[in-house]
Amino acid sequence: CIHPSQVDTVQKAFAPSIHDLRWAVRVITANRKADSLGQGAWTLDGQMIDAPVVGKAKSIASKAEACGMDVKAMQDQWAHQEPE
């Protein structure tokens, strides 16, 4: 049990890093584009991306949003991301 005054500290401690959120948003954005091209697997930064990796990325983004991170701003920043 935590005191309401500790919520911000706990959220910061358990929130994904900016680096992890950036990766997740890039994966999610590129995956939408890959889906529209009919690609089930593709690469990003030389790494293979498939459904389980996309699921992990969505989980990170969801956790970041729940912790109060500005996921929308990150999505806007990486809207140009394409699958490789």
Task: Please characterize this protein's 3D structure.
The protein is mainly alpha-helical and 84 residues long. It is 60% helix and 7% strand. It contains four helices and two strands. It has helices spanning 7-14, 18-36, 51-66, 71-77; strands spanning 42-44, 47-49. Strands 1-2 form a two-stranded antiparallel ribbon. The longest helix is centred in the N-terminal third of the chain and has 19 residues, at 18-36. It is elongated, with a radius of gyration of 15 Å. It starts with 6 loop residues before the first helix and ends in a 7-residue tail after the last helix. The mean pLDDT is 95.
What fraction of the residues are assigned to beta strands by DSSP? Answer: 5-15%
What level of helicity do the residues show? Answer: 55-70%
Give the count of helical stretches: 4
User: What Rg do the Cα atoms give?
Assistant: 15 Å
Please tell me what the overall shape is.
elongated
The count of DSSP E runs of length 2 or more, i.e. the number of strands, is 2
Order of helices and strands: HHEEHH
Q: Largest sheet, described in full?
A: 2 strands, antiparallel
Low-confidence spans? none
How does the helix and strand content classify structurally?
Answer: mainly alpha
